[in-house]
Amino acid sequence: MIRIGIDVGGTNTDAVIMEGKRVVASVKATTSPDVTTGVREALAGALKQSGVAARSVDVVALGTTHFTNAVVQRRDLAPTAAVRLGLPATQALPPMVDWPPDLRDAIGGHAYFAHGGHEFDGRPITPLDPNELRKIARDIVKKKIRTIAISSVFSPVNTEVERQAGEIFAAEAPGAHITLSSDIGRIGLLERENAAIMNACLRDLSRVVMGAFRGALDQTGVTGRFFLTQNDGTLMDADFAERFPVLTFASGPTNSMRGAAFLSGVRDAIVIDVGGTTTDVGSLHKGFPRQATVAVEVGGVRTNFRMPDVFSIGLGGGSLVVEEKPGGKVTVGPRSVGYRLTMDALIFGGKTLTTSDIVVAAGRAKFGDRSKVAHLPPALIANTRARIMEMTHNAVERSRLSSEPLPVIVVGGGSVLIDSKIGDLDVVKPEHFACANAVGAAIAQVSGEVDRIYMLGKSSREEALADAKQKAADAAVAAGARTDSVTIVDVEDVPLAYIPGNATRIRVKAVGELAL
Amino acid sequence: MSKKPTKRGTIVRAKSKKASPGAKTGGGRTRKSAISARASAKFAKTAPVKMIDVADLDDIAVGGAILGTGGGGDPYIGKLMAQQAIRKYGPVRMIDVAEIRDDDLVVPCAMMGAPTVMVEKIPQGDEILTAFRKLERFLGKKIGAILCAEAGGLNSTIPFVIGAMTGIPVIDGDGMGRAFPELQMVTFTLHGVSATPMVVVDDKGNSILLECIDNRWTERLARTATIEMGGSVLIALYPMTGAVAKKASVRGTLTLARRLGEILRESRAAHTDAIAAIQSKLNAATIFEGRVTDIARRTETGFARGDAKFVGVDDYRNHTYRIEFQNEFLIAERDGEPIVTTPDLITLLDADTGVPITTETLRFGLRIVAIAIPCAPQWRTRAGLALVGPNYFGYKVEYRPFRARA
Fold first, then answer.
1. Is A500 in contact with B73 (Cβ distance < 8 A)?
2. How far apart are CA A469 and CA A508, in angstroms?
3. Mean pLDDT across the stretch A458-465?
4. What pLDDT does residue B12 have?
5. ipTM score
6. Do A110 and A182 share a domain, yes or no?
7. In angstroms, rounded to a whole number, what is the distance separating the alpha carbons of residues B29 and B17?
8. Less packed terminus of chain A by CB within 10 Å, N or C?
């Protein structure tokens, strides 16, 4: 099977071609404002390098930060109506209550309450009122709003009212984009609703961007199946992704960690991804990134996405190196020359001392002009390298889950900074380390997840767990997994605090290989 | 009267222009003055009062989570509700219990039920107001001051919701100095205060007035009602006089919560050690620093209970630790020996960020610092220990008071 992995970042677009488990080409291109050009160049470059014919590509998997950036930068967002079902409950906090005002304004801040919703045990709060919804729909149409997000209380327990409401809105506002919160998120009304609203406001953009991606594939003659990677590092079909752009948020760190695991063949490890300005550190458990426990904010909005537990330190290939006094203490970062490395660093004829200058001066890497750093005193070089290793060591220790000597996998463009063991831990620098992101996309699997509350009075714990596992496996197959490859990778079973009666929240995730 | 559900299809447009957190002067402020008229008049005279504003709630919520000792629920929803109310009606006065008059009617309030339900089924918004009005009507007296029932977890924020809505001052104190799972587990019980008359109100506008023979019966009946009403309700209970509140409350705990949050925020901004700062400024000590090696959760008695095992790191590396929990962390053991027990506070903080860890977010591999804070002295009495000591929770462990080095 031939797969192409593409990572469209803010600065670079990377592409790799994989034949089975072998990387046969890896190319870096510059991300273009129109998206298409950069992707086309990276694709064409990778095809040329590998000699693989465009028509023989089976799968294209693409990771992008485009939608995250649109929200962070508040651009290209469509006016959106948020409709919440649950009256009389939930009025204390209207939709978008915890959003930064500028983002709320960017999409118009249109919020509606209606009847509906469920209790935690599945009883309805109030019945859905179709006339009420039609009235809201007419108001939305009158305001010329074309995207609608619907959230209902406890919709992860019962999706029915969101579906019914969606049908009513589809009938009253033909052609409108409708996002149901139960298709996106977990328990936690505000967070799930936030994700649904962000998804809705990205729908116009997703049509354009997905069109650009498809255009790039067409222009290079690639005909394989097309997927995008989502925030847990698994794949979604391009048509699905067009409807759920919000699920691409933060897929980058996951892809790079999965890519690192794949390239090194190590499944339990600490991964450090060294970029130009920052270094991301996270840990891999059985080949998957460990998930964050706290709520993750995107563009200032609280979500409950499945995000990897990654933290960043201000160390990268462009980090500034400052000496307190000649021969004295050295500070590295957090300021960085960033994308201006090839203009500002000493080795490129600039005037700023960066970490890249130090490693070139030390003879640990060959790029730029080494003669421009020949004058650097050995003490400065030694002190800076020691400081870099100290920062890395501290970061790795923070991510370490046990005293077991797990290896550290180093990936990313700035990997040259790391050139020895980190504390007592061995360092693995896999081949193609600079394109770990794209590799992570290329090898991604398919997943399904369930998150709901079960009443253990009505069924036994075993029955409830079996039911949740089956539902998660079914969801993975529905997302494109091969039935016989689906395995349950994560089970969480947490009883609800403070209410007796054996209500328990069960969360199960299943993953499988892509069916072709 | 309970407000009927808002008109069907009501349009609520988020008003960003209204978001003026610093608004000290009351332009456009529309307090519901029926309840507050007397309170405002009286406190105009008193010495400098602390005004709790939007930003203070961020700190109180974090500190409340620390005092939650692993339970009490995430204060996020309560914090947002209080901040909404403050933006709409203005800041809340927080007063010392000594400032109230002996014959004032003091009423504690709280959310009751599962915090996991509340993050999904957010309150309607007028529940506590309804509860207060019903209680006032039943008692034939206006409420003079609001008391926090539980300073740990989400209930640290609830008094400020009703405080902002009514203009009634909030007393700096509570009935626990931490979080506990049952309604009778408050210092008020130790002083013979009855939990009833108590009003339970749900999101739909249903309300129940309870009059019970003792506080354990109130717990049983109110808990059953809570589940029927959808697992998350708001309550007003333990009505008492100012004179009783002066003896029966744990003082200064809301300021403590605010201070804890402030320390965490400031040390994070200055990139200094948050945990060390908390300990140096408070009467707290590290029990151990370690990593979670195992978690077992059980539900045999209804309440979420279980235990977590840890391996010590750094100075604590030669020991193993275990913490028993039932909604909150209750017993900490070193190498099989109990070293800190309820009612002293056992709080777990994320070793990197100082963020409090709850029994629900505790997971394998997490690196934590376990700290202990001595409980309110009232709990160390025989009656106090009978109510909330290790034996009450089913542990065959004797309570030994924990003393911080400081």
1. no
2. 6
3. 81
4. 32
5. 0.83
6. yes
7. 14
8. C
